[in-house]
From TrEMBL:
<keyword id="KW-0433">Leucine-rich repeat</keyword>
<keyword id="KW-0966">Cell projection</keyword>
<dbReference type="InterPro" id="IPR050576">
    <property type="entry name" value="Cilia_flagella_integrity"/>
</dbReference>
<feature type="coiled-coil region">
    <location>
        <begin position="182"/>
        <end position="212"/>
    </location>
</feature>
<keyword id="KW-0175">Coiled coil</keyword>
<protein>
    <submittedName>
        <fullName>LRC46 protein</fullName>
    </submittedName>
</protein>
<dbReference type="Pfam" id="PF14580">
    <property type="entry name" value="LRR_9"/>
</dbReference>
<dbReference type="InterPro" id="IPR032675">
    <property type="entry name" value="LRR_dom_sf"/>
</dbReference>
<keyword id="KW-0969">Cilium</keyword>
<dbReference type="InterPro" id="IPR001611">
    <property type="entry name" value="Leu-rich_rpt"/>
</dbReference>
<keyword id="KW-0677">Repeat</keyword>
Length: 212
C-alpha cells in the first residue's frame, strides 16, 4: 500500500489512493503511524478492515459505492469522515464514532431521512461541522464550550489536513486537470512509440525489397 502519486503537500502520515479503481479495502498489517487516508473516487462497496489504522484521524471515502455506514468503531480517534456521494439510503448513527467532529454525507439518500440532522447531532456530541454546515449550538452550550460555534475556517486551522484534497469538492478541478494532463502525456507517448514502430517496420520492408 503506497500513495498513488507523490506530492509535496501530503505528509508521510498520509496515504492517498484516490481514483485507483479500488473495489475493496483489504486486510493489512497494523499501520499505526497513518493519520489520514484518502480513498475517494474508487469502486469501494463496503467499509471494512480499517482496524489496520488504529490512529486514523481523517478518512475520505467520497464518491464510492458504499451502501452502509459500518465497521468504523475500531477508529476511536477519527475526527473527520467524508462519505459524500455514495449510496447510503439509511443511516445507522450508532455506527458513527463518537469522536467525530466533521462529517460529510452530502449526495446520499440518508440526508433526506426524517429528522436526519437531529439524529446525527444527538449521536455525535463533539460534531462541529455536518455536510459543510457549522453546527449552531444554543447559548448554554456555547458558554459551556467557551465561545461561539466554530466555522469551517476554524476547523481548517485546528486540522491542517483539511487544506489538502479531502472532499470531492476541494481541489477537485485541479485533480481533474492533473489527470487529464497525465492522460494526454500518456497518449502522446503511446502515439510516438507507435509512430517509431511503424517507421521501423517500413525500414525493414524497404531493406527486404532492396535485397530482392
Amino acid at each position: 500500500l503506497c500513495p498513488s502519486r507523490s506530492t509535496g503537500r501530503l505528509p508521510t502520515s498520509t496515504i492517498r489512493l484516490d481514483r485507483e479503481n479500488i473495489s475493496s479495502i483489504g486486510k493489512l498489517r497494523s499501520l499505526g503511524d497513518i493519520l489520514s487516508l484518502y480513498l475517494q473516487q474508487n469502486q469501494i462497496e463496503k467499509i471494512e478492515n480499517l482496524d489496520s489504522f488504529p490512529n486514523l484521524r481523517f478518512l475520505c471515502l467520497a464518491g464510492n459505492r458504499i451502501r452502509r455506514v459500518e465497521n468504523l468503531q475500531p477508529l476511536p480517534h477519527l475526527s473527520a469522515l467524508d462519505l459524500s456521494h455514495n449510496q447510503i439510503q439509511v443511516l445507522d448513527t450508532e455506527e458513527l464514532p463518537h469522536s467525530l467532529q466533521i462529517l460529510d454525507l452530502k449526495g446520499n439518500g440518508c440526508t433526506r431521512q426524517e429528522r436526519y440532522r437531529d439524529l446525527v447531532l444527538a449521536a455525535l456530541p463533539h460534531l462541529g461541522l455536518l455536510d459543510s454546515q457549522p453546527i449552531r449550538k444554543n447559548t448554554a452550550e456555547e458558554k459551556a464550550a467557551g465561545g461561539s460555534s466554530s466555522s469551517e475556517e476554524d476547523y481548517e486551522e485546528l486540522f491542517p489536513e483539511l487544506r489538502t484534497p479531502f472532499t470531492v469538492d476541494k481541489d477537485f478541478f485541479s485533480d481533474v486537470q492533473w489527470e487529464l494532463a497525465r492522460r494526454s502525456r500518456r497518449r502522446r507517448r503511446e502515439s510516438l512509440e507507435e509512430h517509431r514502430a511503424r517507421l521501423e517496420e517500413l525500414r525493414e520492408r524497404r531493406h527486404l525489397l532492396l535485397g530482392l
